[in-house]
Each structure stands twice: as C-alpha cells, then as structure tokens.
Amino acid sequence: MQGLQQIMLKRNIGTHLGHKIKKFTPDRVITAGGEIPADIILFISGMTGSPRFDATDLTPTPGGLI
After folding, report:
1. What's the CA gap between 5 and 3, in Å, rounded?
2. What is the largest CA-CA distance in the chain?
3. Whole-angstrom distance, CA of residue 42 vs CA of residue 46
4. Three-state DSSP class for residue 10
5. Which of 20, 31, 33, 40 is most buried (most C-beta within 10 Å)?
6. What per-residue confidence (pLDDT) applies to 37?
7. What are the b/e assignments for 23-55, b being 16+ CB within 10 Å?
8. First and final CA of the chain: distance in angstroms?
9. Of the candidates 53, 48, 29, which has an alpha carbon nearest to the alpha carbon of residue 40?
10. Residue 28 scores a pLDDT above 70
11. Which residues make beta-bridge pairs with 30?
C-alpha cells in the first residue's frame, strides 16, 4: 500500500483517509469530515471479515464473501 501511495503522490492523486463515508454522488464524496469534489472516485475498503469464520467449514467466494 505504501508503494501505491507514493506513486499516487508523484502523479498528484489525492487520498483522504480516516473519515466515515456517508454518501457518493457522481462528482463528490460526502464524509463525516465534509465534502470532497472529485472527477473520478476510487473506493478501496480496508475492512476484513470476522476471524471467527476462519475456524468454520464455510468456504468463501474468491471475493471473500460467505
């Protein structure tokens, strides 16, 4: 992730971390910290599933869904 952030910084691509997302619109992201105007929105979730499911016989999909 750090390498990606460095490339984005060199290309003048901004990131906004640490605010809960409330809503996406075609030209902006609305967060708990305010509104961010955007030409293109790339949303990358940093969340993972519960580790409790790792100890079950349930098989997740390639995308991690059960």
Report:
1. 5
2. 45
3. 13
4. helix
5. 31
6. 94
7. eeeeeebeeeeeeeeeeeeeeeeeeeeeeeeee
8. 26
9. 29
10. yes
11. 23, 35
CA angle 51, 59, 45 (to 5 degrees): 55
| 8 A C-beta contact, residue 24 and residue 41 | yes
Q: Name the percent of the chain in helix, strand, coil, to the closest 5.
A: 20, 20, 60
40-59 tens-digit pLDDT: 988 877 666 677 877 888 88
Q: CA-CA distances (angstroms) from residue 40 to 25, 27, 29, 30, 55?
A: 11, 8, 10, 14, 39
Residue type at 47?
A: M
Q: How far is CA 28 from the centre of its chain?
A: 15
Read off the tokens for 60: 């997740």
